[in-house]
Amino acid sequence: MSTQTLATVLAPYADELVAFRRDLHAHPELGRYEFRTTQRVAERLQRAGLQPELLPGTGVVCDVGRDAGLGRPVVALRADLDALPLPDECGRDWCSTVDGVSHACGHDVHTTAVLGAGLALADLDALGRLPGRVRLVFQPAEEVHPGGALDVLAAGALDGVDRAFALHCDPGNDVGTVATRPGPITSASDAVHVRLHGTGGHTSRPHLTEDLVFALAQVVTQVPAILTRRLDPRAGVAMVWGRIVAGGASNVIPRVGEVQGTLRCLDSTVWAQAGALVTEVVHEVVRPYGVRADVTVVRGVPPTVNDPEAVLVVEEAVLAELGPGTVTLAEQSLGGEDFAWMLEKVRGAMLRLGTRTPGGRTYDLHQSDFDADERAVLVGARVLGAAAVRALGEPGVG
Question: Which residue of 83, 146, 261, 393 has the fewest CB atoms within a 10 Å radius of its CB?
């Protein structure tokens, strides 16, 4: 079956999908509280004659089609439902109605794209033109480390799945294009919190106490530098601080100070060692200053590692569906993505969906005024559906 049929099958849903995405954007929900979003997705799948199943808490799983036998794979398409704790400054009529919460990472686009792909695949199945079974997975809490993908796996939602595909908005690429790459496409991401303790004192007599702020400054500058010499540089380790707090007066050495940041890594093996090494290095750095250090490293997600064969499936599907010149090589990202947990269980690929209006502004993810060209919704549905159909045509990929 030609994947070109996805454009035709999806055409009647185009306006509805844009409206659905706008509704989600106007009613964002934080991780593990996506109750309305879950209900909206489940209701639409039911109206399509499907049988969605609710996951514990929030989230939806729904199968389309039937087992084809003969070693044919089961393919999963995954979306994330949650929003971010950021105000919405997009300026659109469908701006968030929830104070301090917004879809500034494009998960509303992801969810609607998977829904659209599911509706199209259901229509193909009704015509006897879907060569197997596709599982739609709408997961909660991607933004909550270590990620709602673990909840999905614990619920058995990927049991029996051989291939898994997901997409993520890419405001650095034009709408109508898709980028991907074999191997790591996102990074491992851990949260690091260092808290130093001393007796405090007067800034005129640092020799009579522990100069806690100076020690904290050494942590900020030396720990990232030391890691680059203690870990394989090919692993792409990045230690970056985002918050530092100490003191309340210019002439007082405080008793307590803290710094928080993220540790990112492209290599799973190095990632397994990095957290313990951060703790060791912090203690080494502050030892000369007499302060006491408490170090907490909260493991987040592993790198998202795309299977080369699955990437080839995506590229072939996109070219067949969208035409020549629509596939580019994705840049390596140090962002974290909990789809990585799913790719540790099954082979698959994440693709980057262009959301920039050609010639328009380049946004960044997690910006309060993030906006996506809405044509990306239908493009995302087409390429996910096409990738699923193409993967179903591969015998024995599991």
Answer: 393
